[in-house]
Amino acid sequence: MATRIQAGAVVTMDDNRRICAPGAVVYDASGILYVGDPNGYEGPLDQDLVIPEGVVLPGLLNGHNHAAMSMMRGMADDSPFFEWLTQHVWPVESRMTPEDIRIGTLLACAEMIRSGTVGYADMYFEVDQSAEAVEQAGLRAWISRGLVGLEDPDAKKLEDSLAFAERWRGRGDGRIVPMLGPHAPYTCPPEYLEKVARAARDHDLGIHIHLSESQDEMRQMAERYQKTPIQLAYDAGVFESRTLIAHGLYIEETDLPYLEGMVGGVVTCPVSNAKLGNGILPYHMLKEAGIAIGLGTDGPTSTNTLDMFLELKAMAWLQKTREGRPEGFHAVDALWAGTRGTAAVLGHAGGQLAVGAPADLIVVNGRAAHMTPEWDVLANLVYSAIGSDVRYSVVNGRMILQEGIITTFDEAAVIEEARERAKRLMEG
Ligand SMILES: [Zn+2]
User: How many domains is the chain built from?
Assistant: First the structure.
């Protein structure tokens, strides 16, 4: 079933960063069949959508999330990090049921679909329930259970992760990709990281890990092991499999040899990093070293929203600030990170509108007051657009947001149920 969308502009994010204005995209469940001039497609069509006010772009890919933490959004926001984690997050998490996780994930999916995200990399627990939610919602997800080595002496949770991977690999028409999620070097000692790295190689799984996120972590690792987190992960064999490094703010020049030739890359979460006062990614140093750089939100407790359009802005603002000059970072670099960059980290063929790529795309209303006029469509998308400008979303050729309405589940019922469940969690 081939669908054509004709729109005011098509921003491809292909290798040439081609923009067609006006333009058209044709797709079916197998992928994108055509991108270009509105009248250039000659094949048969089952559906033809004409959206003159629309700007079509590849769906955004959120490279780092803890989706079900949506249930704790806004909780104890301005507390010091360790107080927040130990006195607020952990007690509530200990009361969360598998069904809380499923509903929390659906709540996050609703927010992501509405704001243009087509796929995300997640790390949390009760992963069967979060995978079920994703399967229903119609998004893509790279799902890992967060592994805390200090609480897993007999590696039972690692075994569970491998069993989860067996159960879910390729499910949802290939939309669900299991990974292994050793939380961080300060929660996973070196011997445990080695075990996870070996399991990843044996079972052909990618690794999702927080590394070099805060100065505290850098100090702790230096005191405990006389190593940087990157060196520690390298020595444990982590980088012998595809690795998604969440944050990487404090990667140093001396770390670069350990990352040389790595498969995967770094995902930056600028809003979380700014809100927690952690720092700014050394973007140019990593880019010059040839390391793929993706973009993510982090969990909704540290970022509050999962709106990737906000991350595009924050990335640009912070990088310009770090550089001390406006030309130090361009709008297209931010959009690249949120599409092709995350795709490169994950080894995914998406993040672009090109023939043969997966049919994952969004349509933004380009004629809102804050998107007018159109001197530069890329500047408008990065510096002006907000998540609620997204009107359509297609994942794997299926329309999961149509004229602003989610087609895969009852959003209002999920919001209502999340409110009720969160009330119970607040009461303790
Ligand atoms: Zn995180």
Answer: 2
